[in-house]
Amino acid sequence: MLLPVIFLKLWIKGFKLPIYRQRWLERIGIVPFPPLDNLVWVHAVSVGEAISAVPLVKKMLARYPDISILVTTTTPTGSERVQVAFKDMLGKRVHHCFMPYDFPFSYWLFFSRVKPKALVVMETEIWPNLLCACEKREIPITIANGRLSPLSAKRYAWLGKTMQRMVQPIKQVAAQSELDANRFRALGFSPEGVINTGNIKFDFELPNYLQKDGQALREQLGIQRLVWIAASTHEGEEALILDVYQNLKKKCPALLLLLVPRHPDRFNRVAQLCQENKLHVVRRSEKQSVTNEVDIFLGDSMGEMMLFYAASDIAFVGGSLEPIGGHNLLEPAALGLPTLTGNHLFNFIEISEKLADAQGVVIINNAKALESNLWNLIKEPDNRRLMGARAKAVVVDNKGALEELLALLDKYMI
């Protein structure tokens, strides 16, 4: 009954982001490729999960040479990330489509073409019809890099014994931390099947081309300029960031703000906000030159966040000044960038605590604290380098979760 309403919502979203009006058949389980056998299904709902899935899928392809992998996402932005990461392998050993909506008929259509030997779900996606369909077909499910926020755990707990019955097809959970592992156990997951393997987000590898391409972009932005990136920003954050930038620009005229909104449907609105503040903005998509008069370089493209970080001197990671839960702090940390973030970090508690304990990130509460800490980093280049080195060391020291996860998956692959 709700399906027409869901597609209407997609149609409306399509006014801002046309991809929402495309590939609707995939949403009801009709996949765009022939029947697939000896297949492992990896589901990554959106961008964050897709980023985590990329190194896992690459390791699986190398470790299990006889399998092919289907990667599904729910959001178009996640789809974009998968297609960029595996552009040379799509249609060969890697396949991609949208995740079917959680209706019984969707999975009947989906499994008529797709015959996975196992399903790996990134972080946490618990859908009753999916679990039921996998149980009927004896498809074992592994939750990889499992995470449960206190709010999610509370909501799932409302289901009581129904939840315990529903999760039976989930054979194992590779949790990000012992705190997450305990939350899964409390919901009725098999205690022996829940294992704290650590966070595989620490195990991502920087592309070989990144340093060269980052330097090329930096030359376009201006070698003599100081570049501050505000990444993955949300509604309400850009206005604060622009105020901070205008104050800092008075003290540091060479400062350039590289502003990257989280969602593509907000690119135009953020560009308009910059212009309303009488700031000279150049958009990445327009491929214009960045002169000394430019204040804002707007990163209105997909799949280039690491490139933007590689061309920057200081990072602020958004989704954290507003109660969004934060975004991935490990990407700038892996590049040795001194990083600031807001205090709304409930989606990245373990990562933010490790970085903060090592003094590799500064957690701020408001725009005033953001401005003062940025100014300290701007005027103290040695502190920037030291802070970035500490952040990078945290990433290096916490690698290894991916190998533990692969060891858990061996029983279903070999």
Protein described:
By secondary structure, the protein is α/β, with parallel strands linked by helices. Helix content is 44%, strand content 18%. It is built from 18 helices and 14 strands. Helix 3 runs parallel beside helix 4 (76-85) and helix 11 (237-251) packs parallel to helix 16 (367-379). The protein is globular. The chain starts with a helix and ends with a helix. The mean pLDDT is 92.
List keywords for this structure.
single chain; 414 residues; alpha/beta; seven-stranded parallel beta sheet; 18 helices; 44% helix; globular
Blueprint of the fold:
Elements: H1 3-13, H2 24-27, E1 36-43, H3 47-63, E2 68-73, H4 76-85, E3 94-98, H5 104-113, E4 114-122, H6 128-136, E5 141-146, H7 150-157, H8 161-166, E6 170-175, H9 178-186, E7 194-196, H10 210-221, E8 226-233, H11 237-251, E9 255-261, H12 267-276, E10 281-283, E11 296-298, H13 305-310, E12 314-317, H14 330-334, E13 339-341, H15 349-357, E14 361-363, H16 367-379, H17 381-397, H18 401-413
Parallel strand pairs: 1-2, 1-4, 2-3, 4-5, 5-6, 6-7, 8-9, 8-12, 9-11, 10-11, 12-13, 13-14
Helix pairs in contact: 3-4, 11-16
Rough outline: globular
Largest sheet: 7 strands, parallel
- Strand content range: 15-25%
> How many H/I helical runs?
18
Rg (C-alpha, Å):
22 Å
- The helix fraction, in percent, is 40-55%
With strands numbered from the N-terminus, the spatial order across the biggest sheet is 3-2-1-4-5-6-7
Number of strands: 14
Low-confidence stretches: none
First-residue to last-residue Cα separation: 42 Å
**Average pLDDT over all residues:** 92
Structural class: alpha/beta
